[in-house]
Design goal:
mainly alpha; about 65% helix; about 500 residues; elongated
Length: about 500
């Protein structure tokens, strides 16, 4: 794009970024909710209903909202339904997909703005955007990682938030001296961005603990103690939401993060590193091109090491360090490495551009605004991606039979992507006018290898027990299903109903 000038160059850069980045997290392909995504959607819908349709005063409703939001994960994904009022149907719940992709678009555009302000050269920007698209975009098929990147999960939002936070480092190292008020405002923006990351995934604390000291050190060296102090004060105000969350509820998230990454839960999902890489390359062949571009960028960085800023190298090392932590975890899944996958090509772009002339704030801001408008326009149709029958067909069948038999406590004896606790709770929440049915699972007891006698006791206490035939994944959570079924069939007071072609519903209430 070097032969272009003025507005044409800015428009070309914006168009290139939008065309390459949008397909990585925006998809119109049919989508079915499974485990974590259905839990996120359930929380989003429950929060919207508690806030907009709850009974009592505003304070009481806020207490209900807090009760739903606070769990083992940070709460950012639970507020996707808030802008849309009380979500009381599957069609209304689809708006949460718009909220998530819209928020990702905003953070991605912030990355684009920072790249322009850094002065990234056109050729490097093109290579970086193409690399990200090759890894997480829908081409070439089957592009399995694109499914995770465009799902109703926190991973893409987390990846782009980490990338924006890392790009603050090269941006700050190239910023000219500014007044105290500007330093205060800039620190506030740091705080907001790092707060969003912390409220999305607790593992963002790795980035926050390294990025903030670097930003303050750069500010201190360039502008002295007074303006560094102003930036720190602004950061304190911006980071207040995350700080409040960590102080009041952070222990649960930290414990869950530790168990999921290196604890007992992580070991259940353990796979050899070579197997994960082989499956990734087979199912997402675009990674071949991604690794080629990344290797080329790393080679050029080494070749031009004398002109590379130390702060750019520091940002790259932080991204690499997070990738190494993901690889070291027994629970190695490529989606957990999205922050490194997205940020490394763009950080290399910034490093290779050296101290090029940055785009002035006004054209950079206008171009970023145009890119955001374009992304928001293409986000709107995603609300129709997921059909209720594809996601909740089996859950609706279970709840329908439970209502018919007047069963108030249903126990799931198997666990699968098409029938699990979060899916049944979501179906119950989005079924208007129906009594709420308590749904529980035996999966946690199986995973923890607790005595099976306790499982039998829970089955005796339930009004109904549900089995899904031929469930082979995940194996560790269905290891006792055959024993459960033998125990239940030995009880004379249960009657079996076939509520789906692979679902058996055992109940004491019907058919007596």
């Amino acid at each position: 794009m070097s032969h272009l000038s003025g507005r044409s160059r800015y428009v070309a850069a914006g168009a290139l970024f939008a065309v390459c980045v949008a397909p990585t997290f925006i998809s119109y392909q049919p989508y079915a909710f499974r485990w974590d995504d259905s839990d996120y959607l359930w929380q989003s819908v429950a929060v919207s209903q508690a806030l907009w349709a709850g009974s009592g005063s505003l304070v009481q409703r806020l207490h209900e909202v807090r009760a739903v939001m606070v769990g083992i994960r940070p709460p950012a994904m639970t507020i996707m339904g808030v802008p849309w009022g009380a979500l009381d149907s599957w069609e209304a719940a689809g708006k949460c997909l718009i909220s998530l992709d819209g928020l990702i678009s905003l953070v991605a555009v912030a990355c684009f703005y920072l790249l322009m302000r850094v002065g990234v050269k056109g050729a490097f920007l093109a290579a970086g955007c193409v690399a990200v698209c090759a890894a997480l975009g829908p081409w070439p098929p089957p592009a399995f990682q694109h499914n995770d990147a465009s799902a109703f999960l926190a991973d893409s939002l987390f990846a782009w938030t980490c990338t924006a936070a890392l790009l603050l480092i090269p941006h700050e190292s190239r910023t000219k001296r500014q007044g105290t008020t500007r330093a205060l405002g800039r620190g506030f923006i740091w705080g907001l961005l790092l707060s969003l990351g912390t409220m999305t995934k607790i593992s963002f604390l790795y980035f926050a603990s390294l990025i903030l000291p670097l930003l303050l050190f750069i500010r201190l060296r360039r502008e002295g103690t007074r303006r560094c102090g102003a930036a720190l004060l602004g950061f304190a105000f911006g980071f207040m939401p995350a700080a409040s969350y960590l102080l009041m509820f952070g222990r649960q998230s930290l414990q869950n993060g530790g168990a999921s990454s290196f604890g007992a839960v992580a070991r259940l999902y353990s796979k050899p590193f070579a197997q994960v890489i082989r499956e990734t390359l087979e199912m997402s062949p675009g990674f071949y091109f991604y690794f080629f571009l990344l290797a080329a960028g790393a080679y050029l960085t080494v070749q031009r090491r004398k002109s590379i800023l130390w702060s750019d190298v520091a940002a790259i090392l932080i991204a690499c360090g997070f990738g190494l932590i993901v690889v070291a975890s027994p629970n190695l899944q490529i989606r957990y490495a999205f922050p490194s996958i997205v940020s490394l090509p763009l950080l290399l772009c910034a490093a290779l551009s050296g101290e090029a002339e940055p785009t002035p704030p006004r054209p950079a801001g206008l171009t970023a605004a145009l890119v955001l408008i374009a992304l928001i326009a293409v986000v709107i149709p995603v609300r129709h991606r997921a059909q209720r029958s594809d996601s909740l067909g089996r859950a609706d069948a279970v709840l329908s039979q439970a209502r018919l038999c007047q069963d108030s406590m249903v126990l799931l004896a198997t666990d699968s992507p098409t029938l699990n606790g979060p899916l049944v709770r979501l179906a119950s929440l989005l079924t208007q006018g129906s009594p709420q049915i308590q749904v529980s699972q035996l999966v946690a007891r199986t995973e923890l290898n607790l005595p099976i006698s306790g499982d039998f006791s829970l089955m005796d206490q339930a009004d109904a027990v549900v089995f899904q035939d031929h469930v082979i994944y995940p194996q560790f959570s269905n290891a006792r299903s055959a024993e459960y079924k033998r125990y239940l069939e030995g009880q004379s007071d249960y009657r079996r109903f076939k509520v789906w072609d692979d679902l058996d519903f055992y109940t004491r209430r019907c058919g007596r």
